[in-house]
Design brief:
Helix 3 packs parallel to helix 5. It contains 11 helices and no strands. The protein has 164 residues and is mainly α. It has 2 domains: 98 residues, Alpha Horseshoe (Leucine-rich Repeat Variant), CATH 1.25.10; 46 residues, no CATH class.
């Protein structure tokens, strides 16, 4: 247990938690600060969490992403997708963050899929989130050979389950 985190969380002191999140040299303390900000759910945390998605430690950046969604809801989707495209968070981090929103994330995922250079990552993400409405788009790209990535069998299984 981190007394600084617990004290700031109990006081709902967003600025103290944000300072720990962005300035602490201890990655586990940054992780706990990101989680605490998400649990508090205050919109004031949005910008701090957005910055924390650039943390050098993946587990801190991924936790910040999930907390960002908890704080910002659908307003966080574009930030999550941008961080994924810049590889500051990984696919699992994006998946765990967007699972908080469930189907509310699907329209933004599909729109991003149509206009991005990280289609394979988004296809994988839509498959993981069971975004059935994205299956026809993924199938089209698979049929056109747009994915040069090795091991697309799992994507074929996904699209064939939902698209004839």
């Amino acid at each position: 247990m981190d007394k600084k985190i617990e004290k700031a969380k109990a006081k709902r002191d967003i600025k103290a938690l944000a300072k720990l999140l962005l300035k602490s040299k201890d990655s586990s303390q940054r992780l706990r600060a990101a989680a605490a900000l998400g649990e508090l759910g205050e919109k004031e945390s949005f910008d701090f969490l957005q910055k924390a998605m650039n943390d050098e430690e993946d587990f801190v950046a991924n936790t910040a992403a999930k907390s960002l969604v908890m704080v910002g809801g659908e307003d966080a989707i574009q930030s999550i997708l941008y961080a994924l495209s810049r590889h500051t968070i990984d696919k699992l981090g994006a998946e765990n963050a967007l699972k908080v929103l469930g189907e509310k994330a699907f329209p933004a995922l599909i729109a991003a899929y149509k206009s991005t250079n990280i289609r394979f990552d988004l296809a994988d993400l839509m498959k993981s989130l069971d975004c059935v409405s994205g299956a026809p788009l993924i199938k089209k790209d698979l049929e056109e050979g747009k994915f040069d990535a090795y091991g697309t069998e799992y994507l074929w299984r996904f699209v064939n389950k939902y698209v004839s």
